[in-house]
Amino acid sequence: MESEYREMLLLTGLDHITEEELKRFKYFALTEFQIARSTLDVADRTELADHLIQSAGAASAVTKAINIFQKLNYMHIANALEEKKKEAERKLMT
Questions:
Q1: What phi and psi values does residue 57 have, to the nearest 5 degrees?
Q2: Which end of the chain offers a freer environment for a tag, N or C, measured as fewer CB atoms within 10 Å?
């Protein structure tokens, strides 16, 4: 299940933002996640997804990422991530 959340974060979320948007995402990630600024500053998208999941757990990392995308007003990404998360949770329940 963790790999599914990692894929969600990367393919549905982080891969769809520009470098400038990624910087803004990392800025807000400082308050949402317990990750050092020095770690965030050098992390690429794949490493960032790993750090987010290690910091908060897979499902929580996706939820927190959705919150950050909403703060940044990237609603299309937030909505897409939310839908993917709900799909994964439905699969888990069946």
A1: 90, 155
A2: C
